[in-house]
Design a protein that fits this description.
Blueprint (H helix, E strand, L loop, with lengths): L2 E17 L8 E13 L4 E5 L21 H15 L3 H15 L3 H4 L6 E7 L6 H13 L4 E5 L5 H15 L4 E5 L16 H13 L4 E3 L7 H10 L3 E4 L6 H9 L5 E2 L8 H14 L3 E2 L7 H14 L5 E4 L7 H4 L14 E3 L12 H6 L1 E2 L6
Helix pairs in contact: 1-2, 4-5, 6-7, 9-10
Bound molecules: magnesium ion.
Length: 374
């Protein structure tokens, strides 16, 4: 058994109306997707997606001719490539999908088999006015989601806090609320500094008073001491780690007690193989493991399998903020969009691998020479 070919293609879905992502000063007029396909000599193909994989072509030769089931070896090579060239983890996702197809097993079972069912929270992405945020909150509640994540970063903190207060007034405790402060990292063209510990503390106390379930990325990703002090000062759960790269950085976050909620994303950090181990360590430490997954449906599916198969978690991120961020836009590479049931759950099938079906016509129609942010 051997890997015979790796194919990387780029795609862009035009977005009209644009998607004004709250964490990006530039509204997005297209949604780039990079697809990785790994073929073996029996004709099976594994699918992955996530980062743009620029420069990965130079590293493909380290996988060609290799046993596709030697996942530990591939993970170690990808960890080395990660250091030299960026985030190659869509390749890991494709290899797990391929392994599942070769073995006739769904990935959730390969990673641990704990469950094939997982609950989702609605993750919003747009800074809407208060009344529209309340409408969104009602809508996601009626749709069965147990929780909604809102974004901070409006012109003033009082405007952000007014959104939380208005949703609480309208829905009480019927919907758990999370707040993403988006201070962990920036887009390349956004040079604003992250919050200081004093700023984060001020916001944390207000969110605590509103009974917010977690406060996400209140500080720069590397401000371990700030995170530690913040956690000591407040009782609200602190979440982070969505773009953290290295195992030693996660260890630091764990041993220094920086976070209550760990959010690494299998398509951005350590892959399914690496995060499967981290998920168990996080759970063993009595903390919550629930991946970030703001990308297309392939990444979402990878994180669903990883998490459902390994640990108990209250809920996982489900990007949903129509009309600008609809299921159809998010999952355009797939024949069918991933959706939740009336109680907010997603049930993973027995189909081998990740159980994905690509929409080849849509992919052909959106083919692009490269994938760009905005
Ligand atoms: Mg986030």
């Amino acid at each position: 058994m051997a890997i015979t070919r790796i194919e990387i293609t780029h795609h862009q879905l035009p977005l009209d109306p644009p998607f004004p992502a709250s964490w990006d000063p530039q509204p997005r007029t297209r949604f780039p997707v990079t697809l990785v396909r790994v073929y073996d000599d029996s004709g099976q193909v594994g699918i992955g997606s996530g980062d743009a994989m620029y420069g990965f072509g130079d590293f493909q030769r380290y996988f060609l001719g290799q046993d596709p089931l030697d996942l530990e070896r591939h993970q170690a090579v990808l960890a080395n490539i990660e250091f030299h060239a960026g985030r190659p983890w869509p390749m890991d996702v494709a290899l797990w999908d391929l392994a599942g197809k070769i073995l006739g097993q769904p990935v959730w079972r390969l990673v641990g088999g704990r469950s094939n069912r997982i609950r989702a929270y609605a993750s919003s992405g747009v800074h809407r006015p208060v009344a529209e945020m309340v409408r969104l909150a009602r809508h996601v509640h009626e749709r069965g989601f147990p929780a909604l994540k809102v974004r901070f970063g409006r012109p003033s903190l009082e405007e952000d806090l007014a959104v939380v207060a208005a949703i609480r007034d309208a829905l009480g405790d019927a919907l758990a609320l999370m707040v993403d402060c988006n201070q962990g990292w920036r887009m390349p063209w956004d040079v604003r500094p992250p919050w200081t510990l004093e700023q984060a503390l001020l916001v944390a106390r207000r969110l605590e008073a509103e009974g917010v379930y977690w406060m996400e990325e209140p500080l720069h990703r590397g401000d371990y001491e700030g995170y530690r002090q913040l956690r000591q000062a407040v009782s609200i759960r602190i979440a982070g780690g969505e773009m953290t790269r290295e195992p030693y950085e996660f260890r630091e976050l764990l041993t220094r007690d920086c976070l209550d909620v760990f959010q690494p994303d299998a398509v951005c950090s350590l892959g399914i193989g690496g995060l499967r181990k981290l998920a168990l360590e996080v759970a063993q430490a009595g903390k919550i493991f629930t991946p970030h997954t703001w990308g297309n449906g392939i990444g979402l599916m990878a994180n669903l399998h990883l998490t459902a198969g390994t640990v108990d978690t209250p809920f996982i991120e489900f990007p949903y903020d129509p009309p600008e961020w609809s299921l159809e836009r998010r999952d355009y590479p797939l024949r069918q969009a991933i959706d939740t049931d009336e109680a907010g759950y997603i049930t993973l099938s027995e189909a081998p691998g990740l159980g994905l079906e690509l929409d080849e016509d849509r992919l052909a129609a959106t083919a692009s020479r490269q994938a760009t942010f905005a």
